[in-house]
Design brief:
Elements (H helix, E strand, L loop, with lengths): L19 E2 L2 H10 L3 E5 L6 H4 L5 E4 L6 H11 L4 E5 L3 H14 L3 E4 L10 E2 L5 H16 L2
Parallel strand pairs: 1-6, 2-3, 2-4, 4-5, 5-6
Length: 145
């Protein structure tokens, strides 16, 4: 089993500024403090049906637009201050997050069960069951005042 801060794909963490690990409680706090969060959902992974219930703006990839277009849109609009990612292919997401990290001041948070070192904040590596419970807890805490 990988450690909590070992990138799921070891070659993905090639920079010196690795993501800070956050708990569900901290992620909820970040979402609630954010003025204009947005959730970008892919098409795979556990908990997507729960994340769809979050009361924040969403972009579905690839149904609404591909990930590259979504990143360009978010970067150009400059109205979002927090971008949350889940359910997107690991290596594809790593490239998109790197763009946000280096070319914008938007905060990125990944809530997959795999640590993403290129994000600003990331959930740690988790077992699938533990991750599903974290997602359920996140949705419940964000939607309830």
């Amino acid at each position: 089993m990988l450690g909590k801060t070992t990138p799921y794909q070891p070659t993905a963490g090639s920079n010196l500024n690795h993501a800070e690990i956050v708990s569900t409680k901290i992620a909820v706090s970040m979402i609630k403090r954010s003025k204009h969060p947005i959730l970008i959902l892919g098409s795979y992974g556990e908990g997507l049906e729960y994340l769809e219930k979050l009361n924040i703006e969403k972009i579905y990839t690839p149904r609404d637009m591909n990930l590259l277009d979504a990143i360009k849109k978010i970067s150009n609009e400059k109205k979002h201050d927090l971008v949350i990612f889940s359910g997107i292919t690991y290596y594809y997401l790593a490239q998109a997050i790197t763009h946000l990290k280096h070319f914008s001041d938007i905060t990125s948070l990944t809530i997959d069960n795999m640590y993403h070192p290129n994000a600003k904040y990331s959930f740690p590596n988790m077992e699938k069951k533990e991750h599903l419970e974290a997602i359920k807890r996140l949705v419940m805490l964000v939607n309830n005042p």
